[in-house]
Design brief:
It is a single chain. This protein is about 30% helix and about 20% strand. It is built from 3 helices and 5 strands, in the order E-H-E-E-H-E-H-E.
Length: about 110
């Protein structure tokens, strides 16, 4: 990527990366450290044509391992948060990649204001 002066690194993480959430005390610190790393990497490579995009999702992705963990055997949700279709992540990341806009985005956008 550095030789070509073109490329993208895209990540999707949970909203607990940005702000502490109940039941997320184990993964959140590691995710926050990853965010700091990616922010630093973005600062280092943005002027070299490489885009680092970070997406933070404030919902449980349906059919994910976490969704399975938060759903009872009869399919009822345990009420730990809203759910979202799994296609949202790749679509949003693709849009971020194409626009080369801000390095960080949230879904839904309002999760930063909670």
């Amino acid at each position: 990527m550095l030789e070509r002066r073109d490329g993208a690194i895209l990540t999707a993480q949970g909203a607990s990366t940005l702000r502490g959430q109940p039941n997320m005390s184990v993964p959140a610190p590691a995710q926050a450290a990853q965010r700091n790393y990616l922010q630093s990497l973005h600062a280092e490579v943005a002027d070299k044509g490489i885009y680092v995009g970070m997406l933070y999702i404030g919902a449980i992705i349906e059919n994910s391992a976490f969704h399975t963990w938060t759903t009872t055997p009869d399919g009822a949700a345990l009420g730990l948060g809203p759910t979202v279709n799994p296609t949202i992540s790749p679509n949003l990341l693709w849009n971020m990649h194409n626009s080369k806009g801000p390095a960080e985005a949230t879904y839904p956008e309002a999760i930063l204001n909670r």
